[in-house]
Structures are given as C-alpha cells and as structure tokens.
Amino acid sequence: MGMVQALLVIGAVLSGPLPGSNGTIRGTVVNRSATRPVPCQATVVLRIESGGQFVPLRQLESDSQGRFRFDRLPVGAIYRYLVGANRDEVHYPGPRIVLTDGRPEAEVELGVRDAVARPNPLLIRSLEIVIVPEPGALRVSESLRIENPSSTCYVGEPPPGGGTPVTLALGIPADFERTTFEKEFYGRRFAVADGKVVTSLPWPPGRRELRYTYVLRNDHAYRCWERPLDLPCSHVRVRVRTSKPNDVRCNLPWLPAECDGEILFQSDDPILPAGHVLRVELGRLPLGWMDYARPAALLSLIGLIAATSCVLVRRRHTHPKPVRGSKP
Amino acid sequence: MTTLGQLCLLIALVGSGYAAFACIVGWRGGHGAVLKGGLAAAWAALAGLCGAAVILAHALLIKDFRFDYVARYSDALLPVHYSLSAFWVGQEGSLLLWAWLVALVAISYRFTAGKQADGLRELAFGVLMAYACFLVAIMVFAADPMRPGLTARTSGEGLSPLLQHPAMLVHPPIVFLGYSLWGVPFALAVACLVSGRFEAAWLRQARAWALVAWAVLGGGILWGAEWAYEELGWGGYWSWDPVENGSLMPWLAGTALIHGLLAWQHSGGLKKTTLGLAVATFALCNFAAFLTRSGIFSSLHAFSRSPIGWMFLALMLFLVIGGAALLLARRSRLAAERPIAGLWSREALVRLGVLALVLLAAVTLAGTLVVPVASILCGPRIVLGAGFYNCALIPAGFVLLAAMVATPLCRWRGSPTAAGKQWLTAAAGAGGIAAATAFLRGARHPVTLAVAGLAASAAVATVAAWILDARRLSSARPWLRPLRALALRRRQYAALGIHLGFVALAIGVTGSSLAVRSHDATLAQGDVLHWAGYSIRCLAVRARDLPDRSILAAELEVSEGGATPYQVTPSRAWHRPLNQWTTRVAIRSRWDGDFYAILRGEVEPGKADLTFQDNPMMRWLWASGWIAAAGAAIGLGPARRRGRRLPEARPALLPHAARSNRH
Question: How far A273 CA sits from the closest chain B CA (Å)?
C-alpha cells in the first residue's frame, strides 16, 4: 500500500502543477574545501520521499555562481524533499525540507568538496576490539571511529590494473567466516576482494563510526589472532572475554579490567602507524566436538588394526601358516 | 543433523580404513575371519557414506542453512532440482559423492568378481577400500561437508547461475562415477603386480570394468561439452581448459588400456604397457582432481585454492612411482609371448592405436602442465590454444581412423585373408569416392576430405567384416546368417560399433571446427537479415524482471530456403544477487548442422546485438556418444556359451592357454 501511495505521489508531482504547486527550493552550491566557501558549479538533485526512500525527482546544473532553483513544487507536510549536489562523482546530501502553505519557499546552501585520490588523509581516532572465544570459533567485534581531518573528500586511487578505487581495506584475518555490519548502509558498501573486506565509499571531512562483527573458525586449542592496522590509529583497546586470563597474551600493555571475565589491553602510544600488527595469543580455547572426535576416530582405527595384528600374531604361533592367497 | 552427518563420516573413516587393512592382511595370510571382518567394515563404511550423502542431500533440498556447505552453494530462491546439483558443485560435496561412489563400486566389484578371481579379489577390494579411506580422510580432516555454519543465516550465497542447467544434474556425477570405476582396473592391476598372478580372470574382469568406466567417463565428458555449448554462449564446446583436459587424459589413457587388454588377451603382448596404463589411467584421474582442487588454474570448473589438490598430486606421484617399481620388479614375467605376426595383423594395428592414444594423452598432459610450469620458470603466463593441440590431434586422429578402417578385416596373429584383402581395397575405393564427393560438394580442406574418405572406408570395412563372417556360416539359412554372425561375435561387433561412434565423433569435430560460419548483427523489431541461406526476422526484443534476475530475450523467426519458418529465442539474464550475467543460446539442430544464435546484449532499448553461427555436423558429435554407449552396453552382455562359435574363428589365446601350449 505504501508503494502505491508513493507512486501516486510521484505521479502526481510529475504530471504537472497541482493546485498547491507553488513551492520553491533555491539555494547555492559552495565549495568548502577552500579556506572560505566559494560558489561552484555542480549537479543538483532534488529527491522526494517515496515508500520510506528518497527517489530522484528533478536534476539541474547550478550556474557559475553556484545558484540553483526548483519551482512549482507541491507543498504540504506529505511532501518531504531532499536536495543534494554531485561533484566528482561524489554525492553531498543537503538538509531534508518540507514546504508548507505558510512557508512555500526554502533556501539552502549545499557544501561540496574537492575530491582527492592521494595522499590518504584518514585516521582512526579510536579502535575497540572485543574477542569472544566460543566452541570451535572466535567471535570478534570491532568498532572504529574514522576521521578525515582534511577539508577535502578522499576518493582513493584506482588500482594499477584499473577498476574501482579502494578507500578503506579492513585488515581483518582472511579466514573470517562472515562479516556483519551494524548499519546496513555499510554492509551494502563493503565487499570482499581478494579475501579482504574493502570499500570504495568516499570519505568527506568529519567522523564516521564503523561497527562490525566477524567469526573465525577455530579447530586448535591455541590461536594467534593478528590484525594489521588499516590506518594510523590512536586509542587502541583490545578486550578478550574469557575466564582463563592466564592463557591470553597481547602485544599491547595490559590494563586492569572493568568487569570480571574480561581482560583489557590498551595502547599507550599516542598513535600507532598503519600496518602495525595487533597480536593476541589465546591458549586453551574451547573446541567443537569434532575436534575431539577426529583423533578419537583415528585412535579407534589404529586400535582395531593393532588388535587384529595381535590376534594374527598369536594365531601364527598356535596354527600352521596357511598357503598365501588361498581361499579362506 | 550436522552432528549426525559428521558421525557418519567418522564411521566411514574407521570402516574404510579397517576394511583396507583387513582385506590386504587377510589376503596375505589367508585369514577368513579377518577377511569377513574387512567386508563387514566395508559395509559399515558404505553405510556411513550413504548416511552422510542422504543427510547432505536432505539439507540441500530443505535448504537447511545451518550447514555451512548449504549456505555457500544454495539460497532461498534456488529451484529444488538445482538444489540437488549443489551437492557436487562444491569441493566438500563432490568429495563426498566421489567417496560414496568409490565405496559403492568397491562393494559391487567384491560381489560380482566371481570365484575365478578369488586370488585377486580380496587384494583388489582392499586397494579400492584404501582409496575410499583416502577420500574420506580428506573430508574428515580438511573438507568437511557436514561442517556447521558459525552464524545463523536465512539464506545462502547461492549457486552460480552458469551451473543452473539440466546438464549439471548429470555431468559431474557421471564424471565422478567414471573416475571411481577406473579404480577397479587399477586395483586389479595392483593386485596382479603384488601377487604376481597374471591370470585370465584379471583380463576378463579388468576389460569389463574398464569398458564401463570408459563409456561412463566418455558420456560425462560429452555431457560437459554439451553444457558448454548450450550454456556458456561462446559458440563452441571444448576450449582445452586445463580442467577439461584433466578429464580427457584418463579417458584417452583408458581407451589405450582397453586395447592393451585386448592385445594381451588375444596375442599375449603389451603386458607391461597394459598394466602401466591401468595405473596411469587411475593416476590421471587423481591428476584431474589435483587440477580442480589445487587452485593453480582459474577455471569455471575449478574449486578454490586449497591444500587438498596437492594431496591428490602426492597420491598420483605415489601411484606412478609405486606402479613403476612393481612393473620393474615383475618385468621378467611380463615378457611378450610371441612376436607380432605381421604389419597387417590385428595386434599390430592395436599397438598402433595404443601408441596414438598414449601420444594424445601425453600431448594433452604436456599442454596442461606447460602453463603453470612456464609461469613458475618464466614469469609471464603462456596460453596454449587449439593450434597446439591440433598439431598432435590431427595426425594421431588420422592414425586412429586408419587403424579402425583396417581392424575389422584383419585377424589376430595373422595377415588378412584373400577376401579380406579384396574388401580392404574396396574400402579404400569407397573412401576415395567419399572424399571426391565431399570435394564436389564444396569441401576443400584436406582434413575434411581425409575424414570423409576414412569415415566411408571404416563403414565399408565394418560391413565387409560382417558379410565375411556371415558367409562362413554355411550351416545356417542364408537370410539368418548375418544375424547369427552378429549374435556369435557380439562383442567384436559391439567394439566395431564403438569404432563407428568414434568415426561419427571425428565427423562432428571436423565439421564443427573447420566449417563454422559466423555473423554479428544488430536487429530491432521487424528487421530482417539474410545470411548463409537463412532469413532471420526479429519479432521482438523483450525485457522482463523475475524476483532474482532480469531477462532480455530476442524473439527471432528463421526460415531456410523457403521451408516453414521456425522461432528461436536467444536470451541473456542478469542475476542480481550474484551480480552475474548468463547467456542462453538458441539452437536449431539438424543432421547437417546447427543454427546457433547468441544474444550479446542490447545496443539501445529495443535493439539486440546478436551473433549467428552455422555449426556443421554438431549432431554427429552428440550421436557419437550414444553410438559408443550402445556399443559398450552390447559388449558388456554375458559371454556366449561354449561350443557356439563361428567356424574358422580362432580360440582366444589366454595366457594360461599359451603356457599350457608350451608345455
């Protein structure tokens, strides 16, 4: 039903001026990469909410002064607009707008940025990792606060052989089973390439919080978990939830834990360089039943073979040797 | 259920391991109780593998995503019948299928071997169970198909749309069955070499199992070629992909093995070669597994990079080295019983055929290995195309065809009779006439003319052999003689039928390789294209959306020389969840060639980019498989009763008979 309503709304808006179509959204596109905002040309896209999503309604190019104007828009609380600007293939969303009879016009300023492919300006302001050993597996949750401190939008360089540029590659262990992002937005924008979780998401100035969980299959009592840092990183914390604190070692300094059943390690360096490897060694990990059953089956087979051999050796002493290859 | 499945695999591991040990030790010491224990363990192993296979198949059918394997190769939208094909699409599932088939073949062999083979049966059975144990051990320790998933899922990653084709329900299991069946001649050869008993029973048994394995693997390869022809949409059926070569090599070596067995049976020759070929064929099956499972080749057929492939390579090296050592140790007992009777004797032709087949297998092996070896030594990758293989394929193919022409009219241990020589001349004349006819009908390529001539000669020679056999039956009524000749020499005529299947294959391969015509065109609704005698009208270009894919199809009406027009609909589908394109070609097949249409895409809305091909003689290629399968089925029937033989037909010279003659 929601979809039908949305289609009716879009159809009504596109079919021509409605009785209340006297709304206007106008504004300016400014480049905020410079020390002070400079008007600039960009593609401005007006979206309207439809079925819970904003779908493109109209599109135009701003003039040399960065000015744009959408006229004859229906007004009323049921029409929710989102205006944004595209520059260098990066979309910069603006504010959400509702036009009413009392306020049929809105003026917005859309900020865009210069896109840069290098150097990579991104920093991890905080990285918190929680490792939870489970039978036959390690469940790892990571929370990264990534910041672009520059005034430009980082878009990454295409790889030497061509293809989509990568702006962030997560250095999580390659044998991860499945990575689940807390926000679906990121889940859609990260993909696995050559065993690494990568994204081509542009990074405008500011901070973003990335949270995800992955599972590592484990069939050994000992495991060394290693994770190179993707970017320069400050405030690194690793928590291991275990009841066996003596079996956990880490290359970060140990801190008194905030709660029972948890061991905490935290970096005391102000900033760790990209590529620095975090290492956690875990001993006496809980294993799945098959990890015990495999050697047990092998031992059973060896036992059967040994028992048969013993019986045959004893029989050889008590019975005459039969002719080789004869029918039993 | 995953736990139960894993338990089944553990039972299979212990059962197959103990069965192998007990059968080998029981055979060596003649311990009946141990042999019985071994057999019981083998039954337990088979039961475990059956249980595991049923559990996995059930999980795939009900889409139980708690199984990691199901989550990786199936999804909620996958049709039920393709859910079952996911069983053998992945590494772990295909290993389970293979191990199950090996155990099934081993038990079947054990109970069909008969009493004559008692000296070899238990040892050969032990070897087969050892191989089953090897496969189960790989599953238990490295590729567990029953592994539970670590995360709860409501759907899986899905099956590659390219593999969602009816041929995929048949091709992989048949190829794996072929590999499993080649295990029996191998196990018998090992049993012979270890025991030193080269009895007639081994020849009879190995021949029967080798013929089944040959027909099954050949059928699997042809089915795969048909899938490539219909599904991949590049216009061909064989691309010399290393993994395709992997299944072709054991088939070529196995074909040579069957001929080696015949030479041994009838002339007491080629003994070392035959035993070596039995080992090599099975080793090449493992080499094929190495190619698909090591990850050294990226292919549609290949599984991901894993250490499992290297285990198969290690096994193959072990088999080659062990087989060579056993052959060396027994070489004094494997000398030929007599020299070749003459250049026109049947054993000479069989040797020629074996040589050509071994050469073909060796060239294919070299072509397959040169790519990774060159990349290790030289760095940049080398790609070998069809031209490389044709250098060996064409001359060796002609040698085989020429040998097939002469074989029906030649005799074991002797030259052809006077009538046989006359018919050979007539066959050569018929070949010349066929080549001339092909030339007059427009064929100009020397290979095409030669194949036409040799095909006609082979057909005439086969009919001539039949006529000569029928003439010898003076006691029967004239109109019954041909039928009685067929009945009395059923196996020989089955073999000649298989040879005619090979001739059909040669016709199909030659026609589809040398006389293909192709044309690219862009057609919109109402456009008409006249090309190669076809009149092609575009009726519509339609796009439609399904829940998991978008389909673009071009509806075409094709007419040839005023005949009733027919409709074909080539299409392309975009599979959204897997982000992958697939092509469905449209084929109209006739005995003289296929009309083949590929939809490349949409240039602009309503305008289709199409490729049309005229692929001559394709139906001959597919028919060759059915002819060969029918020949193999007839040849595998029970042996004729003693005393009912054709006059003048010589008794088969079995090794023990040859020995007794010498005494």
Answer: 32
Q: Which residues of chain B make contact with A325, given a CB cutoff of 8 A?
A: 27-28, 30, 119, 195, 197
User: Is B368 a member of any domain?
Assistant: no
Question: Chain A partners of B27 at a C-beta cutoff of 8 Å?
Answer: 325
In one letter, which amino acid is A234?
S
- Interface membership of A317 toward B (CB under 8 Å): no
Domain count across chain B = 2
Contact present, A264 and A256 (Cβ < 8 Å): yes
Interface contact flag, A312 B3, Cβ < 8 Å:
no
Going along chain A from its start, the domains and CATH numbers come out as 2-112 (2.60.40.10), 123-282 (2.60.40.1730)
Picking from B10, B37, B151, the nearest residue to A293 by CB comes out as: B10
Give me the amino acid identity at B291: L
| C-beta atoms surrounding B592 within 10 Å | 11
Contact criterion met (CB < 8 Å) for A321 and B151: no
Q: What percent of chain A has pLDDT over 70?
A: 90
- Closest approach of A139 to chain B, Cα-based (Å): 9
Out of B35, B150, B195, the one facing A215 most closely (by C-beta) is: B150
Whether residue A295 lies within 8 A of chain B, CB to CB, comes out as no
Q: Which of B616, B635, B650 is the last residue of a domain?
A: B616
- Look at residue A327 in the predicted model and tell me its pLDDT: 47
Q: Tens digits of per-residue pLDDT, A29-62?
A: 998 887 777 888 889 999 988 777 788 888 899 9
Is it the case that residue A217 has pLDDT exceeding 60?
yes
Structure tokens given for A30: 């400014």
Q: Which 3 state secondary structure label does DSSP give B137?
A: helix
List CB contacts of B515: < 8 A, sequence separation 6 or more.
Answer: B443, B445, B448, B616, B617
Q: Domain residues for B27?
A: 2-295+303-325+346-359
Query: Which pLDDT band holds residue A12 (cuts at 50, 70, 90)?
Result: low
The residue of chain B with its CA nearest to that of A299 is: B14
ipTM: 0.78
B626 falls within a domain: no
Cβ–Cβ < 8 Å for B546, B552? no
What does the block give as tokens for B29? 């010491």
The pairs formed by B417-425 with CB atoms below 8 angstroms and a separation of 24 or more are B417/B468, B419/B468, B420/B464, B420/B468, B423/B460, B423/B461, B423/B464, B423/B465, B423/B467, B423/B468, B424/B461
- In chain B, which stretches have pLDDT less than 70? 115-118, 235, 294-306, 379-382, 474-476, 638-663
pTM recorded for the entire structure: 0.79
Both structure tokens of A324 = 């080789």
For helices B271-293 and B346-377, what crossing angle results, to 10°?
30
Torsion of CA B375, B377, B378, B379, to 10 degrees: 50
Residue-wise pLDDT for B200-252, tens only, equals 788 888 988 999 999 999 999 999 898 888 877 776 788 888 878 889 999 99
CA distances for B30 relative to A313, B19, B128, B189, B202, angstroms: 13, 15, 19, 20, 19
Among chain B residues, the shortest Cα distance to A300 is held by: B14
Query: Residue A148 has what pLDDT?
Result: 92
Residue A3's contacts (CB-CB under 8 Å, 6 or more residues apart) are A51
Q: How far apart are CA B66 and CA B156, in angstroms?
A: 10
Asked if residue A148 lies in contact with residue A122, where contact means CB atoms within 8 angstroms, the answer is: yes
A179-196 pLDDT, tens digit each? 888 888 888 888 888 778
C-alpha pair distances (Å), A77 with each of A7, B4, B340: 17, 60, 100
